[in-house]
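Subject: Sanity check before I submit

Could someone independently write out the structure tokens for this chain? I want to compare against mine line by line before I put it in a report. The sequence has 210 residues.
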Amino acid sequence: MSSLITPRWLGRIPYAEGLSLQESLVEGKIGGESANHLLLLEHEPVYTIGRTHDESSLREETMLPHPVHRTNRGGQATYHGPGQLVGYPVIDLALFDRDLHSYLRFLEEVLITLLERHKVCGERVEGKTGVWVSGKKIASLGVGVRKWISMHGFAINICGDLTPFQHITPCGLPDVKMTSLEREGAHGVTVESCAAEVAEIFNELIVSQA
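---
Independent answer below. Compare away.
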């Protein structure tokens, strides 16, 4: 099995299309395909929520300005839309000794490294997943695992409008403030340019831990 991940930039696509592609790749890997994938994309505006009986993070679902998609990741409600880079690694978690905690910390490290490249200091918060900048959340994680093959992944705000987050309780965290790479002072960043950087960082870190 190659330790390198094959990245793919998909542009802006509906949430259901991204989910369907992931499902197909996961089934292929379960069936014996060796390639590991990193899908990088933007979504059309959508709220998603993971496997939970408590959906209070959606607040008043009927009042939300965009559709809601219930999905098979972990975690509470979040928003995906233009200006946000979404990454879906479909990989064999044997690369991480089937240690989900280690995998989540790896994803955070990829995003912290991206921020460092733009002179923004990203940090972890004890007991929580994701990445913060000066107490504001810039990136969220939510993963799914099937027979030790990963799906779903991360979302990091690069630029654009963050007001859709104000209609929910992002990740179930009351009073959380959201930010983006652009708001933290990075100039000339686009989702596509950051996708290329993340693809490079992802493979560099995979190789360094091997």
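---
OP: Matches mine. For the report I'm noting this point. The longest strand covers residues 136-146.
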